[in-house]
Every structure is written in C-alpha cells, then in structure tokens.
Amino acid sequence: MAETILSSFAEGVLGKLVSLVGQEIVLVGGVKSEIKKLESTFSAIRAVLSDAEEQQTTNHAVREWLEKLKDVVYDVDDVLDELSTEALRRKVEIHGSKLKEVSNFFSRSNPISFRFKIGHKIKEIRGRLDNIAKDRRDFQFSTEQVENAVRERTSHSSVQESDVIGRENDKEHIVRILLESENDESLSVIPIVGLGGLGKTTLAKLVYHDRRVVENFELRMWVCVSEDFDIKKLIKKILESIPGVHCEYTELDPMQRCLQDNLNAKKFVLVLDDVWNEDFTKWTELKNLLMGGASGSKIVVTTRIIKIASFMGTVSAYELGGLSDDECLSILVKYAFEKGHEKWHPKLVEIGKEIVTKCGGIPLAVRTLGSLLYMNTDDREWLRIRDNDIWKLKQQEHDILPALKLSYKQLPSYLKQCFAYCSMFPKGFEIRWELMINYWMAQGLLSSSNKSQQLEDIGNRYFNELMSRSFFQDIQMFFDKEVDCCKIHDLMVDLAQQVIGIEWSNVYFDSQVNFERIRHVLFAEKDLFEKTIPASLLNAKKLRSFSFSYKVGPINKSFVETLVLRFKCLRALDLQDSEFEELPSFVGKLKHLRYLSLSENCRLKALPNSICKLLNLQCLDLWNCDQLEDLPRDIGKLVSLRYLRLTSQLICMPDKGLQGLTSLRSLLLSKCNRLTSLSEGIRRLTSLRSLHIQDCPSLPSLPSGMRHLTALEKLVIWDCEELNLIEGEDMQGLSSLRSLTIVGLPKLVALPLGLQHSATTLQYLCIRNCGGLTTLPDWLQALKSLQRLYIIECPSILSLPEGIECLTTLRELVIEKCPHLSRRCKTETGEDWAKISHIPDIYIESGWIKVNESNLHQSNSEV
C-alpha cells in the first residue's frame, strides 16, 4: 500500500513561504497578503501532518486527504518557484546591464500579465488549501509530534539445520571468531549485518546450536531485541533466557544484581537478535552490565544498520551476502513442491529458475514466492509469479515485503522521500553518487535549518544514512573514501515504487494509467526514432522528472520537442544515452528545471543559447558529447549551476562564461581532446569544491587563476599527456585541498611546490603512472594531515624521502609496480622500512604487509 510522504517536503515549502514574505518581489497589490494567508493556513496544517501520516496506514479517508493536500503543496511549490525565478531573472538582467537597483521590483519592464497571473494562482491555491484545512477538523488530528510506533517482534533460537540452504561457509566464519581469543578478558561483540530477509537470524541460530559453540560456552542466551531497546526489559529477557531462571523483579537494581549473579565467572555467548537501537549510550549501559562473565565471553548481534554494527562491534561487522541462483532454486523447490515431486514438473522448474533471479539472492523472498506456489502445478500461475513485481503479490506478515518495509518505517520523513525517489532508477542500474545527490537536489528534497550548510553535504549525509541502513549495496569507493557508485537491490526498488505509489510510473506505449497525478516517469521503451510520446502521457501535466530505463539510441526531433513543450513543471530531465541532433530553442521555457542530462549523445553539436534562461539549473551533464563544438555564449548566466560535466571540441574554456558560474561546486572536464586552455576565468569559481580534468591530452598547463580556488577540496588530474605541473604556481592557493589524484602525467618530474600550502588539509594523495617522476620531495613530511598515500606505476622513484616517519597521521601506504621503491620498503630488511614501519596498513606489490581486519574486504585496485 502506497503512503503519502509529505511532512518533510511541506516543511521546505513553508520555509520558502516565510522567506518570501519580506522580499520585494511580493510587494504588489494583494500578493503579499495572499502569501501571508497561505503561510498561516499552511502552518496550521503542517502541525498535524505527523499524526496524519501515521493514521493513513489504517484510514483510507486520511490517505485521500493527504493526497489532495500533496497536490496543493506541489502547486504552492510551483508558484513560489515562479516568483523566485522571476526575481532571479530580474537580478541577472540588472547585473548584466549594470542598471541601478530599482525601488519597486514590479517596474514597467515587468509584464502586467505576470503580476495578474501570479496573484490569480495564489488566490486559487489558497481557496483549495482553506477547504483542505476545514476537512482536517473531521479527523481530530493531534498536533503532537508522532514518533514511529514501537512494534514488538519476537524470534526464537530453534532451527532445523537440514532446512537451511547455502549458509555453511557463513556459519564457519562466525564460529571461528567465537572460538578464537578464548583468553581475551574483554567482552567481544560480533555483528552480523545485512538487508532484511537475507537470513541474519537464521545464521545466528546455526551458530548458536553448533556443537563447538555448545561445548565451549557454559551459558548460552538468546534475546530478540526488536525496536524497544529498554534496559529493564532487556535484562528481564536475558535472565529468562537462562535455563531455570525466572525474573520476578520489577525494579532495575535487583534485576541488575540478579544478572550479575547469573553471569558471574561463567563463559557465555549471548545473541542479541534484530537490533535497531542507534543510541550509543544505551548500548554502553547494557554492555557494562554484561561484563561479569568469564574471559572469552562473546555477544553476537544481528542488525540491518551498519552504524549500529560499527559502534557495538569489537571486530569488523560480518556483512552477509546473498545466495547463489542455484541455492535460491533449491529453496524455491523446497517450498513449492512436496519432497521429490519437482522431478515430475521440469517445465515449472525451468520457470522457477527465472523466478529466483528477481529475488536477488534473498532467501526470504524465495521462500515467499515458493509458499505462494505451494502445490500449484498450473503453468499460468508460475508465469504470473514470474512476470509480476513482488510487491503486487499477496503477502503474509512474515514474508519479504513486510520485512523490507520495516526498514522503511524506521526512516525519518526526510529519508523516506529520498528513498522513495530511488524508484526513478532502473533495476540493476549502477548509480553514480553525484547523480543521486543531484536528483534529490533537483526535487527539493535536501533541506537544513543551518543555512550555511552546503546542499551537497546534506545529500551526502542522507546518502550515508541510507547506506548505513543497508538500502544500498555494491558500494564502490574512491581511494579517498568518497563514494563513486552503488546499486539498489531489485527488491528495494520494488519497495521504493510501492511507497511512492501513484506519483511514479514505468511507462510503455500501451500503458493504461491515469497520468493526472503522476509526477515521475521512467520511460521503458526502446527504438524510439520513429515514435512519438504516447497521447495518454500528455495528461501528466504536473510531471517533475522524466528519464529512460535503457540506452534508447536515436530519438526523433518531435519526441524531444513534445517533452519540452508539454511538461512545463519538469525539475529533472534525463536524456542520457539518447541521440538527437538538436535541443529545441524553447528549452529556456522550462523555468523550474534543475537537472538536465544530455550525456552520451554523440550527435549533438551545439546547444541553443536559450538554455541560458534556465536560471534554476543546478546540474548540466554533457559528458561524452564528443561532437559538441562550443558552449552557448551566455553560459555565464546560469547563476544557479552547481555541477557541470563536459566533453567537447572546445580549444579554450570561455573566459567570460566561467566568470559567471559563481555557484559552481563541481567541474569535470573529460575527453576534451582539443582543449589547450582552461582560461583565467577560473579564478572566479571561488565556490568550486571538486575539479576533475581527465583525458585532455592537449592541455599543457593549468591557469595561474587556480590559486584563487580556496574552497577546492578535491583535485583529480588524469591522463593529460602534455600537462606540466613543474612550476606549481597553480596550486599554491589551494588552502582547502583534501584529496589529490595525479594519474598518467608522463611529463611530471616533480610534485608541485605549491602543494606545501595544503600541508594542514591534504589527507589523500595518489600518484600513479607517472614514469618521469624520479623523486618525492622532502617537504612531503610537512603534510601533517596525510592519511593515505598511494604510489603506483612510478618505476623511476628510487626511495622515500627523509622525514616520512614524521607523518604520524598516515594510516595506509600502497606501493605497487615500483620495483626499486618496493625493494627498499621490504619488511624489516629494506633501507626505507624504518621510515614506514609505524604505518598500520602497508601494501607492497604482492599484498598487505601489516593486515588488520579493515583490509580484509578491501580491493587493491581502488584507484
């Protein structure tokens, strides 16, 4: 059942209303008073949203009320966006023409029609909102903040080992950890972490009943913690899990003494199953009460949340993976057929092979589908299960979607709407971290009470929170610990599509959907060159995002023109992997547009100058548009642009254009084969935090204006054959630089002297495939914040500089394909060993010399 997620979005819209009241833009007849009335009604409704969102799961009328309210909130957001866009347009015009400020925003140069239209829209919206406000009284909502209701769940330790498929290796790993360090006086905690339904509890049961565990621990206890991490309740559960003990105490103090008496000098293993508590203080309090056992006592924790595993665990969390397709098929057969009967239905088993692929290795999902098919030998039913999304199938309380939805229920509202928007990504899609953050930003999902906080930082925090809760998988990291890309499990995509409900649709030419309330479309057709947009989709007049599911290839001019003409409310337009020759000149009318991707278009040669009217545009992706000859002449008018990724035939970046992009935070230049100059206009990019220059073989130097990039935190220079950094003047002002990657610069003979100015900030330094580099400078010892140093494929470097032993913050050193340097750094006997022996983690050629547990799952090819 879809749920309306509104409270966080409404909070952001209300903030816009409040900020607009005092601005000159609303000082026109009737507009300010209407805005203030709108704000007042909006505030009253917002106060009850928390309770309404909680009630909607059981009250259909409340859910309908929320849907109507959401429609109005979106319309409020649109009209406020029109107002702020008009103000921004006027500001750009005044700045561009060097006119004096005018006292009245609505001067004669602004059309009367705009004033009339905005006033009429606000009045109409306020009328609708007033009616919704009246209706809310029928529901008697509470204005108190509603916390997520605590749902008590139970688990038991019983398991039939012969029923469990594919977890033998996982069990052996956990048992080995439990049995080692038996004389360790401290209490060891082993976390098992992973997505709901993977079988964490089942694995813990296998471990709990393993013969070796039974023999080695005098006392075994099993407790299902669930969501209520109440110390008194947990102590009672722990006591009552001890054979022969029944806790009759109701006060905490005698319960604590009873626990200590029962644990005293006994070697125990305790399983804390299904932990959701993120309060470190509560965990510390409980752990201190469990310290009375004998040395070698252990605690096994199962949780979906990496953050919990991190602060509870004394060893690195064991991240449980999915099962193979063969193992999943064995589970499906077990639950769908009576024992041995599958051999009579080979055709059904073949369909079953296709069914298990949609389960993504999650055994609970396989069990759910197998149970639905139990004793059913009708081919049509098996095909129906194969062809339907899991969330469309009837499920019981302990099936897979209720299990996954529990993770969603635990999210704060601001994360719920971010996760719901993940429905926009096709299944199996490898999602770039920057893409996801820019999508969220475009939809207005990133907000903070701290006005000085960067939107990108808020997005990064949201991403990390969702990642910590196992919503993302296959996380790929750069060497500087920044996320590169990730995937979302297919079942989590199903869940996202379910919770976003009628706002999202996967569209085909024959889709029979009511598009009036749809705001996000994933177009799932290929071969579009001779096709036009389905007529039914044209009813989606409030569409906010459009993207393709596949690499669609060439699309015709009419298709693109219809997109731009009909969907005026678009915030995100993703035409990646499509090919067309011309972007319509009226693209500038998409005044709400924040995200525009034209990447991977090998036919696009120019952009219309009207694109520069997109004053709200925050992200412009032109990566791999290798036929693009130039940028529009007024590119500098994109005053809101924060992210630009560019491939082009440019010889020189436009000096004047760069000067205007003062909001730019990230600039990536890739495969610009003819580029010979970045231009001195780069000095104006004082907000730039990330600069990537990749595959620009003709670029001879960096501009001296680089020194003005005082906010730059990450610099990547990759495969620029002619680039010479010897003078280093371009880096001497980089006082915020945190990460530097230099790869494939054959003309590099020395590190730029200007890097010394980053001595207190540089944490990550990677030098790779720089054959001309013969020495590392002695001033390297000045980099007092350096944490990771990678030296790869630099065969001419003969030794490490003096003073590197002074780098006490250096935690990881990687030296690979540097034969002379590797010999000098040989363990114990190498001439440079004494300089690096203090570093905890060292990788030299063939492997880790000092391996701690954090390295066990780490790739040696991160860069």
Automatic annotation (TrEMBL):
Residue span(s) of domain Disease resistance N-terminal: 12-97
Source species of the chain: Liquidambar formosana
InterPro entries xref list: LRR_dom_sf, LRR_R13L4/SHOC2-like, NB-ARC, P-loop_NTPase, Rx_N, WH-like_DNA-bd_sf, WHD_DRP
Keyword ATP-binding: yes
One Gene Ontology MF term: ADP binding
Keywords: ATP-binding, Nucleotide-binding, Plant defense, Repeat
NB-ARC domain boundaries: 168-339
Residue span, Disease resistance protein winged helix domain: 424-496
UniProt feature coiled coil, ranges: none
Name of the protein: Disease resistance protein RGA3
Pfam name, any one: LRR_14
Positions of the Disease resistance R13L4/SHOC-2-like LRR domain: 562-767
BP GO annotations: defense response; response to other organism
